[in-house]
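Exam revision sheet. Question 4 asks you to relate a sequence to its structure. Input first:
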Amino acid sequence: MYFIFDCFGTLIDTGMGSIEATARILKNVDANENADAFYKEWKDIKKKMMYEHPFRNEKTLFELSLGEMFLKYGIKADASKEVEPMIRTLFSQRIVFPETRELLHGLDDKGVEYAIGSTTDTDSILHYLSLNKLNIKKIYTSEDMQVYKPNPLFYTTILKSCGWNVDECIFVGDNLIDDIKGPQSIGMKTVLIDRNRKYRASDVMPDYVINSLLELNDINWGS
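Answer key, structure tokens:
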């Protein structure tokens, strides 16, 4: 059995950095919008842009989608300059969840192979892996593969590169669309990490739901 892990929100805690960055941007441009609501809408626009062609990396998408938000809200500012607080979050001080190291060390001790499959820019994820002293050999980013989740090509590219069969792999992540529905579309088993116990049964149903990464050790993968 092989594991493919999402990174941010699964292995590494993203915290509230994106909301805080949004609040700083709004303050800088003298806008009175609510940071939480503004960021949610900004993120939705960025997500839609991910499916457009040609491929653009995350830093570029943050800038373009912020420009769309400024236009929508009548904010007269240069998005290419004001986006900087959000870009800094791609290289901030995010740290691993408490159980991440124990899980990965356990997999290493058992000789279980695993990879990271993350919708992010490559230099960002390398920064965080180095910061947290995680030595993970198989790292796959949307920027490297030129495709974003939940496009099936994202997952099949990882499988092909690793030489793994889909029925041998488990995708573990915190997002129902990117980490559950996407992998399931190619027949891969999935695990939703739901630390805050917010998941409710829906049309997207993970094979397993866990509240801690260490619960992966308790699952009978043959069942």
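Marking note for examiners. The longest helix spans residues 35-50.
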